[in-house]
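How a chain folds remains the central question behind the approach discussed here. For one protein, we set the task of working out the structure tokens from the amino acid sequence alone. The sequence in question and its structure tokens are set out directly beneath this paragraph.

_____
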Amino acid sequence: MVTIMTVSAALTACTTTEQAPSEHADEELNYPVSPRSDQVTDYHGNSVQDPYRWLEDLNSQTTQQWVTAQNRVTLPYLADLEQRDALKTRLTQVWNYERSSTPFRHGRFYFHFQNNGLQDQSVLYVREGLNGAPRPLLDPNQLSDDGTVSLTRVMVSPNAQYLAYAISDGGSDWVEFRVRDIQSGEDLADRLTGIKFSNVSWLPDGSGFYYSRYPETPAGEVDDSRSVAIYFHRIGSAQRNDRRIYDLSQYPSWNPYPEVTRDGRFLIATITDGFSSNAVHILDLTNRDARWRRIIDYWDGLYEFIDSDANLLFFRTTAGAENGRVIAVDVNRPQPQHWQELIAERDATLREVRYVGGKFFAHYLEDAHSQIEIFNAYGRHEDSIELPGIGSVDSITGQASHLETFFTYTSFTEPGVTLRYDIDQQQVEEIDRAQSPADLSNYQTRQVWYESDDGTAVSMFIVHRHDIELDSANPALLYGYGGFNVALTPSYNPAHTVWLEQGGVLAIPNLRGGGEYGANWHQAGTKLNKQNVFDDFISAARYLIDEGYTSPQQLAIQGASNGGLLVGAVMTQQPSLFAAALPDVGVLDMLRYHTSSANAKAWSSDYGLATDAEDFAALLAYSPVHNVETGVCYPATLITTGDHDDRVAPWHSYKFAAALQNAQSCDNPVLLRVETRAGHGAGTPTWMRIDQVSDQWAFLLDKLQSESQSSNLNAD
């Protein structure tokens, strides 16, 4: 049985630098004490206990000492796992391969990111002409000693004179924008702060750009509990001189983000309020007296700006088409009755559209894998691009004036093939292929369909060795997300390769709440329907067991962010169905998730809010923190988060860990691993990713591996 340290012992452990002794997997764990307060909150006449509310104060000495004490239990435990060192060695080998991103072009210059294998951050290169010699333009590895300062966004001015780029420190969503002269490689003095999720949209002449930032408090601190406004920054000017262009603060949940049409005529503001619908407002930049116009203000679907042609604005939209379609909106007659439908809805889900060389390149998902169809400017279908197999297309790039487009194809067993499509010749050519150090020919991918609890058919990808035996003895990892219109499609991950090398099965279901099958599929996993997501995941687990892929004693579950919520919910609803669980940076307190920032509150389009009585009942029914019960044997659990995570506040993971450690009734460990200098995941350096996965895979293999199974860490 697990035991709990006294308060004095826990705090003493936090303040000493002496290394705690290693714990073995079969020994008792002395968890730090997690005092339970008498905090109670009334929700619509219901008193709900919140004994670990004190952990929400991330800056308090008590919380920080508690986190340190948790790591002093977790890190030695993980370091002492039998296969941890060998896994780290193998992960380092498999991660060490050269890879490049999809090229993107501005004028005569081509840009791409490249990683030599184990670089902590990929380097941005530029070359003049497609066959020119690439030169490094921006190396984020030089921005910090430990690789934790990352490059999150780059936007090249239309004349390819300047590069606006955003850097994040320690994985934070907060970024600082800087500007670099592309020819000289030198930075200008421009520095922009107070920004989280904004793009930068340049004027055609490169004299300045529009962006969105948060307001400041009277004390001069950035306030991300309020909505952003659009500003204009002129190159060479201090940020304090930036002009505020559009402020919708009278609508507290509306956030405007800018985009300038390629002819420089219109500034388009995409107004977001959640993840299911948006509005579009425009400003005529050629008219000094022009005012903002609400050309699409119906909040009846998603409208994603594609490009423009004179008075016509092209949008991909789910309005009137759950799978998506392309429409043209005349700014002089923007009413729906005047819209032109250029590309009608299909059975496949339209995920992305680019307008290149006078053609629409439409990226569809057919049963959760990619297809590319080509349409002319009037919407007539002209061609299909044949892809190498069941996989995913990433980053279609190109502009209206170009006669070429680029994209990258990847799959579970294909690290990445970069392709160029010649529009005049209607030909595809391969220009780059990543080569994994691992032998990927030994694995196969199959797509299956299973029935969820309510009879809904759900698809799932399963990856494993060709010679797998369906004898229920295979360690299996079930990974899911199921929310925010995110589509889980086949893609390469070196971490998964090492898992497969150990004889493991990888299963990824396309749960409701995701974006694989259109807007209705997304909505079927939101708000009062959120339980559908968990039922889909639980049914996926039962399918794997019933078909002989694995057993409850060999089955682990993993998910991050909204997927961390998924793991937390299903392990509290069906604890005996899984042997181990990996909830990563999860949203785990569903009654208070919205209190951390305006961005968090925007998740209410998927979750609902506890301030609404009906939403509250649904949230309370599955909120992981609130559904942990004393006396239950929960799966072996490794909870992971980053202390710099300002998207999903780390206190979600803290409260869940405290509740589980207090309630656990069996010897299965409940560990909390808090990464310092890390955020929500984006920009995490390579060394840190390898460390994290080494811990996770070692933990799983220790909990899942039977005596009859042997390690395959020498596989190559």
Observations:
- The CA atoms of residues 590 and 608 lie 9 Å apart.
